[in-house]
Design goal:
Blueprint lengths: L2 E4 L2 E4 L13 H7 L7 E4 L7 E4 L4 H10 L9 H10 L3
Antiparallel strand pairs: 1-2, 3-4
Helix pairs in contact: 2-3
């Protein structure tokens, strides 16, 4: 993967497969703290650059933390996230 650095920004390129899949380069995964099984979010504004970030919590997880008094910044395991989703089914 070509890597170019200009001023304070870094450019990382990846290839899209015929199935529309992209492997995130290791440097990007490391920088975003993305590990196997992690979810990522693409924020796509009407104008401007697309933003890519790890999904730290979804709405059910935040409800669980609020209901059970978990302080923001606490790290939840995948099992805790799954339990939160099962607990808050509508």
């Amino acid at each position: 993967m070509p890597l170019a650095s200009r001023n304070t920004s870094t450019t990382i390129e990846a290839t899209v497969t015929s199935k529309g899949q992209v492997t995130l380069p290791k440097e990007l995964r490391n920088r975003l703290g993305i590990q196997k099984g992690a979810r990522i979010r693409f924020s796509i504004p009407t104008h401007g650059a697309v933003k890519v970030e790890p999904v730290l919590y979804d709405l059910e997880d935040l409800w669980r933390m609020a209901d059970h008094g978990v302080k923001p910044g606490a790290t939840l395991t995948f099992e805790e996230m799954d339990a939160a989703k099962a607990w808050r089914k509508w």
